[in-house]
Each structure stands twice: as structure tokens, then as C-alpha cells.
Amino acid sequence: LMSLYAVTRWNHIFSRAAALSPHLWADREALLRLIRTAPLMPDTVVYMDWGSEEVDCGMAHDMRRTASALLDRNVAVTARVVPGGDHSEASWERQAPFFIETLMYGISV
Do 95 and 82 form a contact (C-beta atoms < 8 A)? Predict the structure, then answer.
């Protein structure tokens, strides 16, 4: 959740973010307002995921709304459900190849 906040609130510093299992339900509407109104750089990239074994709490709906709001702002977004994933560091570690590839999008090395 903090990654999404940082990439929108301080986009001039953080233009890329990985949000692994973000607690979007903490304040759904405030985050969406921030996404819709924040000045965002054209090279902003966001990766988001959640595990299929996590407690739902409306996560699929919240992820769709958040991804849609980012897409409306021309942010490059990757959003995915991690099969068998749960809310744990071990699960997030297995996602490193996915989010690193996303965060490196458009960067020449």
C-alpha cells in the first residue's frame, strides 16, 4: 500500500512501484482520489498482485478499481493474481522475477 501511495504522492521521486498484497481496503476511496488527482510522470510503472490464498475482503474488486484508475492516468500497470500465493514474505519473494521485469520496463541497460 505504501508503494502505491509513494508512487502517486511523490511521483517526481518514485516513478515505479511494486505493490505486493496491498491492503487496498484500508482506505479505498482516499487512494483512488489520490490516483485520479496526482500529477503523474509519463514513465510511471506499477506492478500489483495478490495471492489466491489470501483472505478476500473484496480484493479482486479493489484491485480492478485501482488498476483501472491507474490505467486511466496512462500508467503502465501489471496486475495479477498469484496462484497459490498468500500474504507472506515467502510468497512475495517468489514474485521477484515478475515485479523486477515490470519495474525495468522501458529502461535500457
Answer: yes
3-state DSSP assignment of residue 5: helix
- Provide the total of helices (H) and of strands (E) in the chain, helices listed first: 5, 3
Q: Please, are residues 57 and 26 in contact by the beta-carbon 8 Å criterion? A: no
Amino acid at 24: L
Tens of pLDDT, residue by residue over 26-83, are 788 999 999 999 999 999 999 999 999 887 767 888 999 999 999 999 999 999 999 9
Global pTM reads: 0.90
b/e burial code for range 33-70 (CB count within 10 A of at least 16 → b): eebeeeebeeebbbbbbbbeebeeeebeebbebbbebb
Encode burial over 86-100: b for 16+ CB neighbours within 10 A, e otherwise.
eeeeebbeebeebbe
Rounded to 5°, the CA angle 98-48-26 comes to 150
Sequence-ordered alpha helix ranges (H) in 12-72: 28-37, 59-72
